[in-house]
């Protein structure tokens, strides 16, 4: 029996995923399922670079702008909602287009990830130590970078003890998430076409810098200030996204506006690099360097070729 297809448009921040996901949804009679851990929050429109109202009118978007940032939200809950949305889209004869750059969220769709009860700390620590022994401490550092980029930046990749302590702190109140290399069972429900968009590094970094300037000009500082007026703080998971955490520090008296904006750009560039590293681990990923294409039509023809090959 033929499995239903899904199309994944992945890639680093600012590469152009939203634009091409919309084009793909229009081209293949599809609907978009967001795979972004920030765009799902209400009231966080600017810093998350959420699709605009105009863009959402061009294609149906699921899992965007629906979670209160004061509420807890987990990868397990995302997995549940994403699979429901995908199955609903398929049931109506349309193509699900998964668009975003959050690696763990994408894993929860593509792999049979088990989000059971959190193990006791001692068991969790032993599991982390086994991972370090079997696969190296870099795997642990990558786990930490995905869940707390700031902590990962502050801890050397070879400092296994500090990495484990940081992961243990994150473990409290959260589901146990297996590392990428510990997941081998693919989700057999779908036949996935994986596409990762990228650009030449200098071009991507320039786009990131321009995007940050645009977000700031659009009122990012006021948005963060308004969220803090709602009672949100740096301790809330929703406020740990790049752009939000740096501005919280500024509003609490750290640094100047110029230093804060430069830090946001720097952290965003580092995050884009980690995203690309994550997506390179997918053996079935089809890569498109947008810097090498003359126009959008050529890009869409390449994606269409891969989609048709799965038909």
Assembly state: single chain
- The number of strands is 6
Strands across the major sheet, in which order?
A: 3-2-4-1-5-6
Instruction: Give the helix/strand class.
Output: alpha/beta
Q: Approximately how much beta-strand content do the residues carry?
A: 5-15%
Overall pLDDT: 89
Show unreliable segments: 173-182
Tally of DSSP helical segments = 13
Distance between the termini: 12 Å
Coarse shape = globular
How helical, in percent, are the residues?
40-55%
The biggest beta sheet is recorded as:
6 strands, parallel
Helix-strand string? EHEHEHEHHHHHEHHHHEH
Radius of gyration: 19 Å
Could you name the key traits of this structure?
311 residues; alpha/beta
Task: Give an overview of the whole structure.
The protein is α/β, with parallel strands linked by helices and 311 residues long. The chain is built from 13 helices and 6 strands. The protein has a 6-stranded parallel sheet with strand order 3-2-4-1-5-6, with helices on both faces. Helix 5 (121-135) crosses helix 6, helix 10 crosses helix 11 (244-251) and helix 11 (244-251) packs antiparallel against helix 12 (257-279). It is globular, with a radius of gyration of 19 Å.
Question: What is shown here, in short?
Answer:
The chain is an alpha/beta fold and 311 residues long.
Sequence-ordered SSE layout with sheet pairings:
Elements: E1 5-10, H1 17-27, E2 30-34, H2 53-58, E3 61-62, H3 75-91, E4 95-100, H4 103-110, H5 121-135, H6 137-147, H7 149-154, H8 160-171, E5 191-198, H9 201-217, H10 220-229, H11 244-251, H12 257-279, E6 285-289, H13 296-309
Parallel strand pairs: 1-4, 1-5, 2-3, 2-4, 5-6
Helix pairs in contact: 1-13, 3-4, 5-6, 5-8, 6-8, 9-12, 10-11, 11-12
